[in-house]
Amino acid sequence: MEDGGRHASREILPAFAEPLHVGRPNIGNTETFLRLAGAMLERRWLTNNGPLLQELERRLAAFLGVKHCIAMCNGTIALEIAIRALGLSGEVIVPSYTFVATAHALFWQGITPVFADIDADTHNLDPAAVRRMITPRTTGIIGVHLWGRAAPTAELRQIAEEHGLKLIFDAAHAFGASHGNQMIGSFGDAEVFSFHATKFFNTFEGGAVTTNNDDLAEAMRLIRNFGFSGFDNVIHPGTNGKMTEICAAMGLVNLDAIEEMMAANRRNYMAYKAAFAGVPGLTLLPYDEATHCNFQYVVLEIGPEASLGRDEIVVALHEQNVLARKYFWPGCHRLAPYRDLFPHAGLMLPNTEVIADRVIVLPTGTAVPPDVCTQIANLIIVISKNRRNGEAA
Ligand code: T4K
What we know:
Elements (H helix, E strand, L loop, with lengths): L3 H9 L7 E2 L8 H14 L7 H14 L3 E5 L2 H11 L5 E5 L5 H7 L4 E5 L10 H6 L5 E7 L8 H11 L2 E5 L7 E2 L2 E2 L6 E5 L12 E5 L2 H11 L20 H12 L1 H19 L5 E3 L13 E5 L7 H10 L2 E2 L14 H4 L8 H7 L2 E4 L7 H23 L1
Parallel strand pairs: 1-13, 3-4, 3-5, 5-6, 6-9
Antiparallel strand pairs: 2-10, 7-8, 9-10, 11-12, 12-14
Ligand T4K binds next to helix 4 and helix 5.
């Protein structure tokens, strides 16, 4: 009886012929990319603040409505550099319900990530929980715009100001999204993007920090390039956070296609939304459609009313070649090294524990047509119904 739903669903619906991944890259015009790549090879300028990188930074800053965009080799290094440049130390408050890089970027620099709980409705940091975690050692807060939906920026700003804390936003998921009329990218002291292949906007690997603070931008540019100021002169300790020219070329091409990518994601999200409407126990996390959204994460919450648990649904989907993901299970506090350092952290994270056990992220992006999204949704609904029938039999 335990596998009733999975086996019954396999009889009714054949598995998809090709694996359907979450995070298939969105890719702009291939010909333009190859032309840019060819010109780059002709120029023999491959990295270190090249012309494509400079153009990408200019265009990204304009698109995001922010003064400075400092492109980096990936989002994790971008976070580390922002943390270093802002002088964080001691303890920094972060959600546990995020990709582990948010916490690692702190830990790697000898800073203790202190996990605060999320709001169960938004999956973003709960400002009241943040307040509870402040101690005399706290120097900053990193809010995450999870799933591309804005964190509570005003409330976190208020807390930061009251306690003299720095405020960073991990905007890895939120490229192209807005909060009200303001694009994500200019909230807090700095915002950090990931341009990884799986992200809405990608540069193969890559990332960026955006800020309106001139001094901070200058410090981050120095740190990104070993602290060099001109030839033979190092004026700051630094690392290598540089983005290559080939990555910048990919960024320029993808930026040209950003509206189409957004439209494709929106179509897919709407297909899922229509299919799941009114199905008990299967709730699609909504986007605020009145704002700019990238719709990159189709997040399905499996509630207690559902006839199958989240893990069973994921196993059944994988059997049908739908490689849905349990992002961000089980929460950073239950991953190394944090689970050993803070074995009782879960006591302060009741919403995180519940949500991490309920979420499935479904395939979308330009590689997935909307009718396939409808089929995936129907498959999930059928799997659940079969289980219910199986139990009744
Ligand atoms: N903060 C947050 C909130 C983040 O989500 C991330 C990254 C960061 C910070 C750090 O930024 P980066 O340093 O990564 O720039 C992936 C990514 O590696 C990671 O970038 C991302 N978050 C995280 C959410 O997802 P995995 O372990 O899920 O990757 P993987 O290899 O399982 O691939 C995911 C799916 O994408 C698979 O179904 C296969 C598909 N895929 C992947 C790649 C790379 C493709 O179809 N083509 C590809 O080229 O971590």
